[in-house]
Amino acid sequence: MSGRPAVEDPILKVLQDYTTCDVADALVKLKMHHGGFLPGLTMWSPQRQDGDTKIVGPAYTVQYAPKDDPRPKWPSHYIDSVPAGAVVFVACTPGTSNALYGGLMSTRAKASGAVGSVIDGRFRDVHEQRALGYPVFARDVGTTPPGPLFKVVAVDEPVKVCNDGQDITINPGDYLIGDVNGVVVLPRSLAEEALPLMGKQVEADSQMAVEIQKGMTFTEASKRFRS
Fold it and tell me: According to the UniProt entry, where is the signal peptide (predicted)?
């Protein structure tokens, strides 16, 4: 699992203080124009788009492919190798109605110390996920398991998210951040450069909010605190 930050990585602690919007703002400043946003992924567990649930961790990536894909099926179950502190990221060909992930997967992930799972597709067993109190972000729900149509072909290798006009690569160890706003990926290579920008942006926006509440226009506040 090369390239993965250690669980005690100090960047993880700092990221706890920021929202997905803060991360995206910093990445835009670094010319990553989509801000690392992974479109279409929303919170389903432990609540549906509600509460203070937040996940921050290095990506542990899983790639599903159609069963006729020439690559061999992964020889063991990916869920048994999830590192503590990781965010499980499951990717597949867009558009399938089969669920890629279920309640037993979260049971094992939680027992291994994972902080949450992000499914770029459908998942199932919503009641089990919520009973576990385990964070799951996904595109939608489903009922049918992946086995009839799909197989896992790669684990802890780069995966692509190609949706809504965005083509984003997630590498093992990249930071995934999820909250009620959605999910963003912070490339590990940009993290140290992005963190100071987040702090400056949050401070500027806090000052803007105070002055706007006093009657200052947004335009004037922007010029004063963001320029």
Answer: none
